Amino acid sequence: MLPKYNVLTEEQVLIIHNESIKILEEIGMEFEYEPALKVFRAQGLKVEGNRVHFTREFIEGKIKLAPAEFTLHARNPEHDLVCGGENIIYMPGYGAPFIQLADGTRRKSTMQDYENIVKLAGASKNLHMTGGTVAEPQDIPDEIRHLKMIYSSIKNSDKCFMGSAEGRERAQDSIEMAGLLFGGKDVIKEKPVLISLINSLTPLKYDERMLGALMAYAEAGQAVVIASLVMAGSTGPAALVGTLALQNAEVLAGIALAQSINPGTPVVYGSTSALSDMRTGSLSIGSPETALFISASAQIARFYGVPSRSGGALNDSKIVDAQAGYESMMTLMAASVTGINFVLHTAGILQYFMAISYEKFMMDDEMAGMLLHYLKGFNFDEDGLAYDAIAKVGPGGHFLTQKHTRRNHKKEFRTPQLSDRAAFDAWSKEKLDTNQRAHKQWQEVLANYVPPQLDENIDKKLLEFIAQRS
Amino acid sequence: MKELFLELKQAIIDGDEDIVGELSQKVIDESINPVDAVQEGLIKGIEVVGELWKAGEVFLPDVMMSAEAMKVGLGLLEPEIAKLGMSEGESKGKIVLGTVEGDIHDIGKNITGAMFTAAGYKVFDIGTDIKAEDFVLKAQEVGADIIGASALLTTTMSAQKQIIDYLIEHNLKDQFKVFIGGGPTSQAYADEIGADGWAESADEAVALADRMLAK
């Protein structure tokens, strides 16, 4: 593994921490949910209306309770994931309402898209889990959407997946279904199986929906990502350090709430902070500033001793083009080399989170594979030094007929899945660009994918639960 | 007097609500014609800002601060105009703006409000988490041309339809144009629920209103 690089000095991290504490102490934050306020009151904090004023002692004490790493359990134990430390977890995009098609048109996403993307993530060698709302199934009524999504995540892959963050009730449904899958709620309380995405409402608020879900998951011992998306310039200051301090204050308050409810709750420090475009106000995520926010967040989370989460292959492009590629590589690489542990939105995102594209998914899957290979770094054993082969060939000559070459290239070189390395004439026969190649590829992957068998009894129980809740 | 109007105009361009407040108070204290102050000062200023934005010479914070300053000026001068029984003159149109019930995201709505203000519309921003009925009541109260409803979540988009349903139910559909907007919305969705207009960005919404109200 390559060492993770830092973008801040230790002193700068401390400055950000102290600014966040000042925000939490002097300005405070609003929590629009009485049960959360009750928790803070019981902890002896000053609560005025919905506004909670924190203290340094409280925040710093609670952060220490959060585990440095934890295991997230999968239906297939081979896919269990350790979140934290040196580990990196890649997964698909989250929450996009549209599907961008290869021909340039865009439509609403459906349950079929959700299922397809879970399958593509299930088939991927580079994506470690299938994620959460991989596509917003707009053809399913809102009240039962979460049930259908969780079921699809369970049925179509045996990798880890995410729970619903749409309020306490839907979080509880997610926990019930996970309980059915893993043999009871007591079992999963000891072995977390769900991780869910709790977002603040920047600046300095949490809403009822998210707080209800956060509390349900914390009580049930399930993992939560506590994330803040500051849009620098609109929902946050037009300053990078100020934005980080604001984001950090929000995340610290959320983590402190989770630890107050259930000390030791597995949490992930989350950041999706980005920019507001100053011409239109719209969110802009494929920028160097976003890459800086990602990098700093990895480091700040390390300072607190908790796992980190950021976005992955982020971009503002409308289609699978060069902009989509170069912006995505910048942010995904920043996340990967600075030590982000939980990389949401690794695959599929276009249009600043508004759309998922199957073709972009395949392109990002390739990038994820490239980066996993990059992160492995160098091999310094005898095969890696290859002195014998160098000696054998001597001056002049070539290595193509060496046994070492035939054996070792498979270990040290990565074969591309999607990139085209053919010569010009060979490529010219079909002249397929990345978008077109990816379009063919995802259909092949989907056609060949066989979902892992789900125990019939469990399947029946899950379907009964859904019927009863619908 | 002319000088004062020029200062007002400049303060709007600068987006300086303190100076706009001071100058507007001066208009009242010195019994200067408040309608002229609005027409020759405030509106002239915001027109310049609108033009500069279109030309790409100013950014969103410039427009939004000018719109805020405009609000301060109108807040002082409009009651004076009403007190004197005068007419403020014609605006390009009136729009009631809000974020729908169940949704508290307001950045998009605020930007849209500023853009409409900069384009010479009278904007009534009624906030976030607004019931269908309250949109319509406000629109009736102020005689709005357009009701603008924003939603950021796929789960709150249905509340945009509720506004249209409410209008149909109360036989008011032809009295107002309903515009919808927000991340997950689209022209197809607008057509599906019977909205009169949809735009992806604030400036496109203004352009659409210009076209629609000109008819």
Automatic annotation (TrEMBL), chain A:
Entry protein name? Methyltransferase
Check the record and name the Pfam families matching this protein. Answer: MTTB
Top-level division of the source organism's lineage: Bacteria
One term of GO molecular function: methyltransferase activity
**UniProt keywords, alphabetically:** Methyltransferase, Transferase
- EC number(s): the record gives 2.1.1.-
Enzyme class, one word?
transferase
Respond yes or no to whether keyword rRNA-binding is given for this record. Answer: no
InterPro entries, alphabetized: MttB-like_sf (IPR038601), MTTB_MeTrfase (IPR010426)
Which processes are annotated in GO (biological process)? Answer: methanogenesis; methylation
Q: Which Gene3D superfamilies match?
A: Trimethylamine methyltransferase-like
Organism from which the protein derives: Desulfosporosinus lacus DSM 15449
Family in the record: Belongs to the trimethylamine methyltransferase family.
From TrEMBL, chain B:
All residue ranges annotated as the B12-binding domain in the record: 92-215
**Keyword annotations:** Cobalt, Metal-binding
Is Metal-binding among this UniProt entry's keywords? yes
Annotated GO CC locations? cytosol
One family name in Pfam for this protein: B12-binding_2
A Gene Ontology biological process term:
tetrahydrofolate metabolic process
Q: Which SUPFAM superfamilies match?
A: Cobalamin (vitamin B12)-binding domain (SSF52242), Methionine synthase domain (SSF47644)
Q: Entry's PROSITE patterns? A: B12_BINDING (PS51332), B12_BINDING_NTER (PS51337)
One GO molecular function term of this record is:
methionine synthase activity
InterPro entries registered for this protein in UniProt: Cbl-bd_cap (IPR003759), Cobalamin-bd (IPR006158), Cobalamin-bd_sf (IPR036724), Corrinoid_p (IPR012741), Met_Synthase/Corrinoid (IPR050554), Meth_synthase_dom (IPR036594)
Give a yes or no for keyword rRNA processing in this entry.
no
Q: Could you tell me which NCBIfam families the record lists for this protein?
A: pyl_corrinoid
Family to which the UniProt record says this protein belongs: Belongs to the methylamine corrinoid protein family.
Q: What name appears for this protein in its UniProt entry? A: Trimethylamine corrinoid protein
Origin species, per record, is: Desulfosporosinus lacus DSM 15449
- Lineage, uppermost ranks: Bacteria, Bacillati, Bacillota, Clostridia, Eubacteriales
